[in-house]
From TrEMBL, chain A:
Keywords: Cell membrane, Cytoplasmic vesicle, Disulfide bond, Glycoprotein, Golgi apparatus, Lipid transport, Membrane, Transmembrane, Transmembrane helix, Transport
Protein name: Cell cycle control protein
Species: Meleagris gallopavo (Wild turkey)
One Pfam family recorded for the sequence: CDC50
Domain of life according to the entry: Eukaryota
GO cellular component: apical plasma membrane; endoplasmic reticulum; Golgi apparatus; transport vesicle membrane
TM annotation in the entry: 26-52, 309-331
Designated gene of the protein: TMEM30A
UniProtKB/TrEMBL annotation, chain B:
Compartment list: Endoplasmic reticulum membrane; Membrane
Ranges of biased composition (kind: Basic residues): 513-522
Catalytic activity: ATP + H2O + phospholipidSide 1 = ADP + phosphate + phospholipidSide 2; a beta-D-glucosyl-(1<->1')-N-acylsphing-4-enine(out) + ATP + H2O = a beta-D-glucosyl-(1<->1')-N-acylsphing-4-enine(in) + ADP + phosphate + H(+)
Similarity section: Belongs to the cation transport ATPase (P-type) (TC 3.A.3) family. Type IV subfamily.
Name the record gives this protein: Phospholipid-transporting ATPase
Major location category of this protein: endoplasmic reticulum
Every P-type ATPase N-terminal domain range: 63-118
Organism: Meleagris gallopavo (Wild turkey)
GO cellular component, one term: endoplasmic reticulum membrane
Gene Ontology terms: biological process: phospholipid translocation
Length: 346, 1378
C-alpha cells in the first residue's frame, strides 16, 4: 500500500527513546534523613526486645571432658571407641536459678570439625532414605567407610562412623537422694528428617534385623544400627540421636540436642534450683584432637537459645543511625541550603 | 625471486598429470608462448582459459585450481559444527579457565562440587554461544543458498548457446551473458556490450553505496567487433593478477593466439554484486569466482575493538587473579598447618579410599587447587558475557534513537562495532575531516575569475540565500520542487520500482552490519532530490553573472563570426574557460526523462517536416523560459537570434555529430574529409539541428550529470548556466553545446584522471574546428600555479604574469571566503609533441610492472607549461548545527582538531564560521619547509604560552599545513608539536594527506595517551578513522568507504553531539558502574566462602548448597546489573545536552579508575565480612547445621548485593523494579521449591527443608534485617558525603537535582548555571590583566626570536608584534609563510 511505506525510522516509543517514566531518588541529606531516623527508631526497640528475651533465657553448661586432673572424668580421658567395659563418671553441679519452662539438654563438642569437606560428604542419603539398593551398595562417597569385610556398612560413611555415643543421665540430688529426671529422647530431631529424609529400609515385616540383613555395623559402633533403641519407631535409621548427629554442625564448636525435659506442671519449675548430678557413660574419645565435651541445659525463647549478640547489634545499629541522622540534620541545616543552592528545592 | 617459467610449466604439468597421462599437448598452445616470452610466476599471476572447448585442457586444469562461484560464508556444516565450534570457543581464555576448573574438579582430592555441577557454568556459556553461532550460521546458510541458486545465463560449450545456470555453477573461464538490471554473479572481464561504444554501465551501490553509475569498457580490441560476440571463437588466454581486495585496481593482459597482448584494467572488469544498468546485453568471461571475487574479499565482518574500560578491566582482573592466588595460598597454608597440628587423626579427618592419609604438605598443595575451584567466581567470567549482553542492549538503544535518524536519507545511526559504546563517553580528542563532515559536501558554484577578471555572481549568492530560507521550511521546499520539476516526479518512482529489487537482494548478501546502503525508500517526497548524485536543485541551478554572461556571449559570437583561426586572446579565454569546465571532468550525462538513460550521442534527428511556424513557436516558448530564468529577455532573444542567424556559418564550421535512427553512427570528427561529408550530408538537416539544440537549451533539466566528485558536477552545472552544455560523453568523444546551439564534438585522446598526488586532472582533446590538440587541466591552485608556462616574449610574459598575480589574488580572496578553489588551465600541443607523448603513454599503459609509476610520470610530463585560464570558487555549505555541536563538544572538554586537505585559508575560514576558532583566540600559524625554523617556532611558542595556559585567558589555536607537518613528523619534533598543540583549543591541519591524517591521530593517541575519535566521510579519511579509538563515518556524498571502516556511521555531523554527550555519557556511566558492581558482587560473595574456611579447617567446604551458589550468579543476581547496564540514566538527555560539561565525568574516567576499584574492593571485603560474621555471631555455639548456617548467609548476601545495586540505580523504571524485586522472589521461590522437593536428589548433601524451617524462625528474619543495614551503612554514608562533598555538590548531583524540576524551571536553572560559569571564565578576559600578560609575552617572543636562527622567526615576531599593536579584533598570530 502507498501509506505503509517502510522506513528505517526508529519507533518513537518511550522505551526505545529511553523516556520510560521513572522514579529518580537522589541521595542527599534531606532525603536520607528520615530513613536514618526511621531505622534508628525501629531498630532500638527491637534490639531491646531481643536483648531482654535473651537475658531471660536460663542456661547451664558443664564441661565433662576431664582435662583437669581433679575432674571425675579425668580417668576416662583416654578411652577408645571399643573400650569395654565403658568408663563411667559422675559430675555434680548446682543450679543457682530454677529453669521455669521446658528445658533442652544438649551435648556440646568443641574443636570437632563436623564441617570438614570430606567428612560432610561421607554419607549416603539414599541409603538413609531407605533405598534398598543403596543399603547393600552404598555410595562411593562413603569410602573408606563403605564396606567392612566385604559387607556394606549401614549406615555407611565417616559421619555415621563417628557418632557421638556418650550416655548422659541427669539426677536431681535432694538430701542425698538422687531422683532421676525424665529425659525425653523423642522429638529432638526435625520432623521432616524423622519422617521424610530418614527411613528404614522397606521389606517384608517390620523386623529391622531382617531388613538390615547383609549389612554390617560401622567400625566404631559397638552395636549395629538396628539395635540403637528398643522402641521400633526410634530404631534403625530413624533413631533420633542418630538423625541429630547426621545433621552436621556448621562450626567446629557446636551443640546438639540430646534430650528434652518437659515441664510437668504449672506449679513447679522444670528444674528447680539446687543440686544435680550428671552420670556419664564416657565412650567418646575427644582428647586426641583437643576436643571438649559439654553438657548444656537451656530454656529457649521465641528466637532460639541464649545469644545476646543480636540484641546488642540492633541497639548499636539503631543508635548509630539515630546519631547519624542527627549529624546529617545539623549538616543539612547549616550547609545544605548553601551548597545545593536555595533555588533548587529537594 | 620469481619462479621461472619452467617451474610454472612444471606446475601445470603436474596438475594436468593428475587427470590425464599425456601432459603438454597442442591444446595448450599458450604454454609454449609463455615459455618463450614470459617470466610468469603462478603465485603472482592467474591464468584464465575460456570454457568454450577450445582450451579444454587448460580450462580443465585451471578450473580445478580456482575456486568456483559457490559462496559459503557459513563457518560450519552439520558435521563439523560441534568440534569446530568448541575449538573456536576454547580459544577464549575465559572458557579455558572454566575447563581448567572442571578438570581440576575431576580429581577426587580436589573435588569441591559435584563434577557435573562445575561443568554447568561452562556448559551454559558454551551452549549460549553455540546457539548464537548456530542461528547466525543458519541465517548465513540460507542467504548463501539463495545467492548460490540465483540464475545467470552462461555459455554452454556443448549447446553452443547461453543456458540458465545457478550462480554456484559458474566457473572461472565461463562466458556470462548479462542483461540490464541483472546482478553480476562473479568478477567478469567485459568482452562485449550492446552499447556501440563498448560501454557497460554499472551501479555499485551494493559494493560501496555509491548510486551514481560507473562506466566499464569492453577490453580494447573487442570494442571494435561490433558484431555480436561469439564465445565459440574466443581463443585468447587471460593473464591477470591474483585475487585481491582492492576494488580500484586490477590489471592484466590478454594473450592472443598470435602472441599479441592486449592490456586491460579495472575499467574492463565487472565486479560481483554490482548491477548492470542502461546496457541491454553484456558478455564477459569470468576471471574471479566465488570467494575470490573482489566483493567477497572485501566482505569483512564487524570490527572488534577493545574499549578503554575493557582494557582497564583486564588489569583489574589480573588484580583479582592475584587476590585469588593469595586467598588460595592462605587456604593451602592454613590447611597444611591445621592438618599437621593433630598428633593422631581425628574422626572427622577422613582418609582416602584406601584408608591412607595425606601428608600435611601434600594436602596443603591439593587444598590450593581446591580453593581455586571453590573461589573461582572471584574471576568474574560472567562479566564478559554480561558486558556483551549489555553492549548489545546499548547498541540497540543507540540505534533506535530517533534524534540520530536522518529523515532525508532515511538512515538511522549504524553501530558497526558492537563493543566500544562506552568509549563514546570518554573521548578527549576529536579529529575531524572538513569537507562532507563539517560541510555538506554539496558544492555550489559561487564565483569565478577568468583571465584575471573576477566575477562575483551576486545574483547567485542572493539565490543561495533565499534557498537557505526555503530549506528551513521543508514543506514549502518540497512543494516548490514539485512545482519546478514536474516530470521528474512522475518518472522517478517507476525507475525505482525497477531498480530496487535486484539492489535489495544482493544487499542482503553482505554481512550483517554492512548493510549501510543508500538505497532510498520508495515514494518519499525528497527522493527525487537526492536520487541522482550531486544534483539537488541548489547545485544545479546556477544563476549566471550578467557581466560575465555578456562577455561570454560576445566572445562566443566573435569566435563564430570571425574565422576560428584568428583568435582574440581574451575571447578564447572565456570560451576556453567554459569549455574546460564542461569537458575536463569525468561527468557522465544521463537524461531525466528515461530511466537513467545514458546520453552518449546527441538525440537522433527527427525526420524533417517542421514548419517555420513551429520554429517560431519554439522561439516564443524560449523567450518565456528565458524570461523566467534570471537573465534579461532582450539579451536572450538577441542571443538566440544571433545563434539562429548564424546557422549558415555553422553549417561550415560546426562538426555535426549525428546519428541515424538505425544506429549506424557516422563518426564525423575522425577526419577532415569525413567532416565535409557530414556537413554536406546533413546540410539539409541543419534547421532541425538548430531546432534540436534549441529545444534542449530550453530545458536545462533534461540532463543529469553524475560525477564522481561533487565539485565536478558543480562546475559542469556552472558551464551549463553559461550555455556551455555538456551534452554527451563517451570514452572517445565529448559533445558540448555552445551558447549558439552549436554542437561541438571533441575527440578525447586521453583522460588523465584525478589523483591525490598530482592533485589535478587533465583531458587531451582534439578541437573539432581548429584540429588543435588541447590539454585542459583542472586542479588545485598550488599545483597549477607552479606548472604555468613562462612565455618567451616579454609582452605576453608581462600579461601572463599580471593575469597570474590577479588570479592568485582572487584565489586568496576566495579561500578567505571559505570557498574551494580550482584552477583551470590549458595547453596546446603540437602534433609531433603529442605523438611522442602518446607513444610514451602507450608504453606505460602496456607495462605490467610499475605501471602506476610510469603512468604518473607520463601524466606529469604532459601537464607542464600550461596557460592559465581562470579559477573557480565553489562553496561548500556548512552543515546544519555544526557550530552548535562544536561549541558543545568544546564545552565538554573535548579538543577538536580538523585535518583537511583543503587550502589553509579555506580551512581557517570554515574554522571561524563553525566556531572552531574564536575571534578572540590567539592563532599560531606555522608554515615552513625548514626544520630549523619550524623547531624554533615551536620552541618560541611553547615556553611563553605555558604560564598563560594556567589562567583562563584568551585561548589558542594552531594552524599548520601539510608540509610543516611532514617536517615535524620526520624531524623528531613530535613531542614539541604535541606540547604546543595540547595548549591549543583547536588545531587545524591543512593540506594534509590521508597518511598524515592517520599519523597525526596515532601520534596524539599514543603520545598523549588520550581517547581519540575520528570522523570523516570520504575514502581519504579511512586511515584516520581506523587509527582512532573510535571511528565515525559520515554516510554522505562520497561513497561508503568511510562508513565501511567506521565503528559508528552517522549521517550528519550534528548527531555527534547527542551521540557523545548523551549516549556516550550514559554508556560509559552504565558500563563503568556495572563493571565495578560485578567485581564487587563476585568478591563480596566469594569472600563469604573464604571466611568459612577459617571455621572448617580450610578444608574447602561450603556452607551454601552448590546449586544455590551457582544459581546465585547465574540467575538470582544477574538481571539487575544487566538492566542497570542497559537502562540506567543518571541524568536526563536534555540536561546532558544543555550542560555539556557533564561529559567530563566520563572523560576523566571518574567512575571507573583504580581508586574506585580499590574502594569497591574494600567495600566488598567489608560487606562480605558483615554478611558472614553477623550470622556467625548470631548462630554461634548453637545446634545450627552447615546448610542452616549457610542459608541466612546466602540470603543476606543476596539482599545486600541487590540493595547495593539499588543504591547505585539512579532511575527506577518498571524494569528496574521488576528485576530487583523479581530477583529476590526468584531466589525465595527457587529455594523453597528446591529445599522441599530435593530429599535425596543431590547426594551426599541435601539441603532438605532448610529454607522452610528457617522461614518459620524469627531469628532468620532478624538476621536478614540487620545484616544488609550494617553492610550498606558505610556505602550510604559514602554516597552522601562523596556526592555532596565537603566542597559543595558536584555538577552531576546538581544535574540530577535539576532533572527533578519541571521543564520550565529546569531550563531557567540551567541558564543560570551556565551564565554563572561563563561569567567566571570570561572574567579574566574582561579585565586588563591578560592584555598586560600578552604584552609581556610579546617581549618574550621578541627575545626568543632574536636568539633563534633564521630570519623568518624574526619576521614572525615582527608580524606578531604588529598584530598585537594593531589590536585587531582577531588577534591572530600569523607567521609569515616561507
Amino acid at each position: 500500500g502507498g501509506g505503509a511505506v517502510k522506513t528505517r525510522k526508529p519507533d518513537n516509543t518511550a522505551f526505545k527513546q529511553q523516556r520510560l517514566p521513572a522514579w529518580q531518588p537522589i541521595l542527599t541529606a534531606g532525603t536520607v534523613l528520615p530513613a536514618f531516623f526511621i531505622i534508628g527508631l525501629i531498630f532500638i526497640p527491637i534490639g531491646i526486645g531481643i536483648f531482654v528475651t535473651s537475658n531471660n533465657i536460663r542456661e547451664y553448661e558443664i564441661d565433662y571432658t576431664g582435662i583437669e586432673p581433679s575432674s571425675p572424668c579425668n580417668k576416662c580421658l583416654n578411652v577408645s571407641w571399643d573400650s569395654t567395659p565403658p568408663c563411667t563418671c559422675t559430675i555434680n553441679f548446682t543450679l543457682e536459678h530454677s529453669f521455669e519452662s521446658n528445658v533442652f539438654m544438649y551435648y556440646g563438642l568443641s574443636n570437632f570439625y563436623q564441617n570438614h569437606r570430606r567428612y560432610v560428604k561421607s554419607r549416603d542419603d539414599s541409603q538413609l532414605n531407605g533405598d534398598n539398593s543403596s543399603l547393600l551398595n552404598p555410595s562411593k562417597e562413603c569410602e573408606p567407610y563403605r564396606t567392612n569385610e566385604d559387607k556394606p556398612i549401614a549406615p555407611c560413611g565417616a559421619i555415621a562412623n563417628s557418632m557421638f555415643n556418650d550416655t548422659l543421665e541427669l539426677y536431681h540430688v535432694e538430701n542425698d537422694t538422687r531422683t532421676a529426671i525424665t529425659l525425653i529422647k523423642k522429638g529432638i530431631a526435625w520432623w521432616t528428617d524423622k519422617n521424610v529424609k530418614f527411613r528404614n529400609p522397606t521389606g517384608d515385616g517390620n523386623n529391622l534385623t531382617a531388613l538390615f540383613q547383609g549389612t554390617t555395623k560401622p567400625v566404631n559402633w559397638p552395636k549395629p544400627v538396628y539395635m540403637l533403641d528398643s522402641e521400633p519407631d526410634n530404631n534403625g535409621f530413624i533413631n533420633e540421636d542418630f538423625i541429630v548427629w547426621m545433621r552436621t554442625a556448621a562450626l567446629p564448636t557446636f551443640r546438639k540436642l540430646y534430650r528434652l525435659i518437659e515441664r510437668k506442671s504449672n506449679l513447679q519449675p522444670t528444674l528447680q534450683a539446687g543440686k544435680y548430678s550428671l552420670d556419664i557413660t564416657y565412650n567418646y574419645p575427644v582428647h586426641s584432637f583437643d576436643g571438649r565435651k559439654r553438657m548444656i541445659l537451656s530454656t529457649i525463647s521465641w528466637m532460639g537459645g541464649k545469644n545476646p549478640f543480636l540484641g546488642i547489634a540492633y541497639i548499636t545499629v539503631g543508635s548509630i543511625c539515630f546519631f547519624l541522622g542527627v549529624v546529617l540534620l545539623i549538616i543539612h541545616h547549616k550547609y545544605g541550603n548553601r551548597n545545593t543552592s536555595a533555588d533548587i528545592p529537594n | 625471486m620469481a619462479l621461472s617459467v619452467d617451474s610454472a610449466l612444471y606446475r601445470w604439468q603436474r596438475l594436468g598429470a593428475k587427470s590425464a597421462p599425456q601432459t603438454v599437448s597442442e591444446s595448450t598452445p599458450l604454454l609454449f608462448s609463455v615459455r618463450d616470452r614470459l617470466k610468469l610466476n603462478l603465485n603472482k599471476w592467474r591464468i584464465v582459459f575460456s570454457n568454450n572447448g577450445r582450451q579444454q585442457r587448460g580450462w580443465d586444469q585451471a578450473s580445478r585450481f580456482y575456486s568456483g562461484n559457490k559462496i559459503q560464508t557459513t563457518k560450519y556444516t552439520w558435521l563439523t559444527f560441534l568440534p569446530k565450534n568448541l575449538f573456536k570457543q576454547f580459544h577464549r581464555l575465559a572458557n579455558l579457565y572454566f575447563l581448567f576448573l572442571v578438570v581440576l574438579n575431576w580429581f577426587p582430592q580436589m573435588e569441591v562440587f559435584h563434577r557435573e555441577i562445575t561443568m554447568i557454568p561452562l556448559i551454559v556459556v558454551l551452549l549460549a554461544s553455540m546457539i548464537k553461532d548456530a542461528i547466525e550460521d543458519y541465517k548465513k546458510y540460507q542467504f548463501d543458498k539463495k545467492i548460490n541458486s540465483s540464475k545467470s545465463r552462461v555459455y554452454d560449450k556443448k549447446d553452443h548457446a547461453y543456458v540458465e545456470k545457478c550462480w554456484k555453477d559458474v566457473r572461472v573461464g565461463d562466458f556470462v551473458q548479462l542483461q540490464c538490471n541483472e546482478t553480476i554473479p562473479a568478477d567478469i572481464l567485459l568482452l562485449y556490450s550492446s552499447d556501440q561504444n563498448g560501454i557497460c554501465h554499472l551501479e555499485t551501490a551494493n559494493l560501496d553505496g555509491e548510486t551514481n553509475l560507473k562506466q566499464r569498457r569492453v577490453v580494447m580490441g573487442f570494442s571494435s567487433q561490433n558484431t555480436s560476440f561469439e564465445p565459440e571463437f574466443f581463443q585468447n588466454t587471460i593473464i591477470c593478477e591474483m585475487p585481491n581486495n582492492d576494488l580500484n585496481k586490477f590489471k592484466g593482459y590478454m594473450e592472443q593466439p598470435n602472441h599479441e597482448r592486449i592490456g586491460f584494467n579495472i575499467e574492463n572488469l565487472l565486479l560481483r554484486g554490482c548491477t548492470i544498468r542502461n546496457t541491454e546485453v553484456a558478455i564477459g568471461i569470468v576471471i574471479y569466482a566465488g570467494h575470490e571475487t573482489k566483493a567477497m574479499l572485501n566482505n569483512n565482518g564487524p570490527r572488534y575493538k577493545r574499549s578503554k574500560i575493557e582494557r582497564r578491566m583486564n588489569v583489574d582482573i589480573f588484580l583479582c587473579v592475584g587476590l585469588l592466588f593469595t586467598m588460595c595460598l592462605v587456604g593451602s597454608i592454613g590447611h597444611g598447618i591445621w592438618s599437621g597440628s593433630f598428633p593422631e587423626h581425628p574422626p572427622y579427618d577422613v582418609p582416602d579410599e584406601n584408608g591412607n592419609f595425606l601428608s600435611p604438605v601434600l594436602s596443603g598443595f591439593y587444598m590450593f587447587l581446591t580453593m581455586i575451584i571453590l573461589l573461582q567466581v572471584l574471576i568474574p567470567i560472567s562479566l564478559y558475557v554480561s558486558i556483551e549482553l549489555v553492549k548489545l542492549g546499548q547498541v540497540f538503544l543507540i540505534h533506535n534513537d530517533i534524534d540520530l535518524y536522518d529523515e532525508e536519507a532515511d538512515l538511522p545511526i549504524q553501530c558497526r562495532a558492537l563493543n566500544i559504546t562506552e568509549d563514546l563517553g570518554q573521548i578527549q580528542y576529536i579529529f575531524s575531516d572538513k569537507t562532507g563532515t563539517l560541510t555538506e559536501n554539496k558544492m555550489v558554484f559561487r564565483r569565478c575569475t577568468v583571465d584575471g577578471h573576477e566575477f562575483s555572481h551576486q545574483e547567485n549568492a542572493k539565490r543561495l540565500e533565499t534557498h537557505k530560507e526555503l530549506d528551513l521550511e521543508d514543506e514549502d521546499f518540497a512543494k516548490l520542487q514539485q512545482f519546478t520539476l514536474p516530470q521528474m516526479n512522475i518518472e522517478r518512482p517507476a525507475t525505482y520500482q525497477r531498480t530496487m529489487r535486484p539492489l535489495r537482494r544482493s544487499q542482503s548478501a553482505r554481512a550483517h552490519f554492512q548493510g549501510h546502503t543508500r538505497s532510498r525508500s520508495l515514494g518519499r517526497r525528497d527522493s527525487n532530490q537526492s536520487q541522482v548524485a550531486f544534483s539537488s536543485t541548489i547545485e544545479k541551478d546556477v544563476t549566471p553573472d550578467s557581466r560575465l554572461l555578456r562577455r561570454v556571449r560576445e566572445a562566443a559570437l566573435r569566435t563564430e563570426n570571425l574565422s576560428p583561426f584568428i583568435h582574440m586572446k581574451t575571447a578564447t579565454s572565456f570560451t576556453d574557460f567554459f569549455l574546460a569546465l564542461a569537458i575536463c571532468n569525468t561527468v557522465v550525462v544521463s537524461t531525466t526523462t528515461e530511466p537513467r538513460q545514458r546520453v552518449t550521442v546527441p538525440p537522433p534527428i527527427k525526420p524533417s517536416g517542421i514548419t517555420l511556424e513551429k520554429i517560431h513557436q519554439i522561439f516564443q516558448r524560449l523567450k518565456l523560459v528565458s524570461l523566467s530564468q534570471s537573465f534579461s529577455s532582450s539579451q536572450s532573444s538577441s542571443d538566440l537570434g544571433a545563434s539562429f542567424s548564424a546557422k549558415n556559418t555553422e553549417e561550415h564550421l560546426a562538426t555535426l555529430d549525428c546519428c541515424d535512427n538505425d544506429d549506424s553512427c557516422c563518426d564525423s570528427s575522425r577526419g577532415a574529409g569525413l567532416q565535409d561529408k557530414s556537413s554536406t550530408d546533413f546540410g539539409s538537416a541543419s534547421l532541425d539541428e538548430v531546432f534540436q539544440s534549441v529545444t534542449h537549451g530550453t530545458l536545462p533539466t533534461d540532463f543529469c550529470y553524475e560525477a564522481e566528485s561533487p565539485d565536478e558536477a558543480a562546475l559542469v552545472y556552472a558551464a551549463q548556466a553559461y550555455s556551455f552544455t555538456l551534452v554527451s560523453r563517451t570514452p572517445e568523444q565529448v559533445t558540448v553545446r555552445l551558447p549558439q546551439g552549436t554542437l561541438l564534438t571533441f575527440d578525447i585522446l586521453y583522460t588523465l584522471g584525478f589523483d591525490s598526488v598530482r592533485k589535478r586532472m587533465s583531458v587531451v582533446v582534439r578541437h573539432p574546428l581548429t584540429k588543435e590538440i588541447i590539454v585542459y587541466t583542472k586542479g588545485a591552485d598550488s599545483v597549477i600555479m607552479d606548472l604555468l608556462e613562462d612565455p618567451a616574449d616579454t609582452n605576453a610574459e608581462r600579461r601572463m604574469k599580471r593575469i597570474k598575480d590577479k588570479t592568485q589574488k582572487h584565489l586568496d580572496y576566495y579561500a578567505r571566503d571559505g570557498l574551494r578553489t580550482l584552477c583551470i588551465a590549458k595547453k596546446v600541443l603540437s602534433e609531433d609533441d603529442f605523438q611522442k607523448w602518446a607513444n610514451f603513454r602507450q608504453e606505460a599503459e602496456a607495462a605490467i610492472d610499475n605501471r602506476d609509476e610510469l603512468l604518473m610520470e607520463t601524466a606529469q610530463h604532459l601537464e607542464t607549461k600550461l596557460t592559465l585560464l581562470g579559477a573557480t570558487g565553489i562553496e561548500d555549505r556548512l552543515q546544519d548545527g555544526v557550530p552548535d555541536t562544536i561549541a558543545a563538544l568544546r564545552e565538554a572538554g573535548i579538543q577538536i582538531w580538523v585535518l583537511t586537505g583543503d587550502k589553509q585559508e579555506t580551512a581557517v575560514n570554515i574554522a571561524y564560521s563553525c566556531k572552531l576558532l574564536d575571534q578572540r583566540d590567539t592563532v599560531f600559524t606555522i608554515n615552513t619547509e625548514n626544520k630549523e625554523t619550524c623547531e624554533s617556532k615551536l620552541f618560541g611558542f611553547i615556553p611563553t604560552s605555558l604560564p598563560a595556559s594556567e589562567i583562563p585567558g584568551p585561548e589558542f589555536g594552531l594552524v599548520i599545513d601539510g608540509r610543516t607537518l611532514d617536517i615535524i613528523l620526520q624531524g623528531g619534533l613530535e613531542e614539541r608539536f604535541l606540547e604546543l598543540a595540547r595548549l591549543c583549543r583547536s588545531v587545524l591541519c591543512c593540506r594534509s594527506t590521508p597518511l598524515q591524517k592517520s599519523i597525526v591521530v596515532k601520534l596524539v593517541r599514543r603520545q598523549l595517551k588520550v581517547m581519540t575519535l575520528s570522523i570523516g566521510d570520504g575514502a581519504n579519511d579511512v586511515s584516520m578513522i581506523q587509527a582512532a579509538d573510535v571511528g565515525i563515518g559520515i554516510s554522505g556524498q562520497e561513497g561508503m568507504q568511510a562508513v565501511m571502516a567506521s565503528d559508528f556511521a552517522i549521517s550528519r555531523f550534528k548527531h555527534l553531539k547527542k551521540l557523545l554527550l548523551v549516549h556516550g555519557h550514559w554508556c560509559y556511566a552504565r558500563l563503568a558502574k556495572m563493571v565495578i558492581y560485578f567485581f564487587y558482587k563476585n568478591v563480596c560473595y566469594v569472600n563469604l566462602l573464604f571466611w568459612y574456611q577459617f571455621f572448617c579447617g580450610f578444608s574447602g567446604n561450603t556452607m551454601i548448597d552448590y546449586w544455590q551458589m551457582i544459581f546465585f550468579n547465574l540467575f538470582f543476581t544477574s538481571l539487575p546489573p544487566l538492566v542497570f547496564g542497559v537502562l540506567d540514566r543518571d541524568v536526563s538527555a536534555e540536561t546532558l545536552l544543555s550542560l555539556p560539561e557533564l561529559y567530563k565525568n566520563g572523560q576523566n574516567s571518574e567512575i571507573y579508575k583504580l581508586s574506585t576499584f580499590i574502594i569497591t574492593m574494600l567495600d566488598a571485603f567489608y560487606q562480605s565480612l558483615v554478611c558472614f560474621f553477623v550470622p556467625y555471631l548470631a548462630y554461634k555455639d548453637s545446634d545450627i547445621d552447615v546448610f542452616s548456617f549457610g542459608n541466612p548467609i546466602n540470603t543476606v548476601s543476596l539482599l545486600t548485593i541487590i540493595l547495593h545495586q539499588a543504591l547505585e540505580m539512579k532511575t527506577w523504571t518498571l524494569f528496574h523494579w521488576i528485576t530487583i524485586i523479581g530477583s529476590v522472589v526468584i531466589y525465595l521461590t527457587f529455594s523453597l521449591i528446591y529445599n522441599a522437593v530435593c530429599v535425596a536428589c543431590n547426594p551426599p548433601t541435601d539441603p532438605y527443608w532448610i529454607m522452610e524451617k528457617q522461614l518459620s524462625e524469627p531469628a532468620f528474619y532478624l538476621v536478614c534485617l540487620i545484616t544488609p543495614a550494617i553492610a550498606l551503612l558505610p556505602r550510604f554514608e559514602y554516597f552522601i558525603f562523596a556526592l555532596r562533598g565537603t566542597f559543595g555538590a558536584s555538577l552531576l548531583l546538581k544535574a540530577q537535582q535539576l532533572d527533578k524540576l519541571p521543564k520550565g524551571q529546569r531550563d531557567c536553572e540551567i541558564q543560570k548555571l551556565r551564565s554563572r560559569k561563563q561569567a567566571t571564565s570570561d572574567a579574566p578576559v574582561a579585565s586588563a590583566a591578560p592584555n598586560e600578560d600578552l604584552d609581556q609575552r610579546n617581549s618574550h617572543f621578541l627575545s626568543s626570536g632574536i636568539a633563534s636562527p633564521g630570519q623568518d622567526s624574526g619576521n614572525l615576531t615582527k608580524g606578531k608584534a604588529k598584530n598585537f599593536n594593531c589590536g585587531s579584533h582577531r588577534r591572530s598570530v600569523s607567521a609569515v609563510t616561507l
